[in-house]
Amino acid sequence: MEACKDAGLAKSIGVSNFNRRQLEMILNKPGLKHKPVSNQVECHPYFTQPKLLEFCRQHDIVIVGYSPLGTSRDETWVNVSSPPLLEDPVLNAIGKKYNKTAAQVALRFSIQRGVVVIPKSFNPQRIRENFQIFDFSLTEKEMKEIEALNKNVRYVELLMWRDHPEYPFNDEY
Ligand code: A2P
């Protein structure tokens, strides 16, 4: 990847699903030329990643949050033991106050704590809705209320790779 960047084929290097130990392995690599600028991991109000977020902040690595709306809940790959994120009463109540949807509140929460979001939708109206999060802001109290929703349970466990020696989700973070 460093060679790709040097050749002008990549602007920056990013990684995905790296835990702290794996990030440290890269950051401490002798002769490291270009460190990763981002780590794409699951991140949303039910899985807020406080420790990984802090570690990444300290190392100038941006967290890119996948499944920021709590996934499509497709049971072939999603752990649906956690309830649907967008039905959460706190997100909906805060949304009511700002005339926004629970989805918009969830996305606003993430960007307001410095997490890049990549929501997915096949629906043009919802795609537009997901952009309309820059005309309101959540108070500190609301941010704390949403942070407190963290269940520390992943929707995306990638269990098909659980036997791989570098399966990332056995570590605490
Ligand atoms: P749809 O494609 O019908 O809009 P995630 O980004 O967390 O993976 O979530 C994707 C899921 O969230 C999809 O099922 C998508 O369905 C749905 N979704 C996307 N945007 C919204 C929204 N603004 N409100 C409700 N559901 C949404």
UniProtKB/TrEMBL annotation:
Pfam families: Aldo_ket_red. Coiled coil: none annotated. One of its GO terms (molecular function) is oxidoreductase activity. InterPro entries: AKR, Aldo/ket_reductase_CS, NAD(P)_OxRdtase_dom_sf, NADP_OxRdtase_dom. Transmembrane segments: none annotated. Gene3D superfamilies: NADP-dependent oxidoreductase domain (3.20.20.100). Residues 1-150 form the NADP-dependent oxidoreductase domain. Belongs to the aldo/keto reductase family. This is NADP-dependent oxidoreductase domain-containing protein. The lineage of its organism: Eukaryota, Metazoa, Chordata, Craniata, Vertebrata.
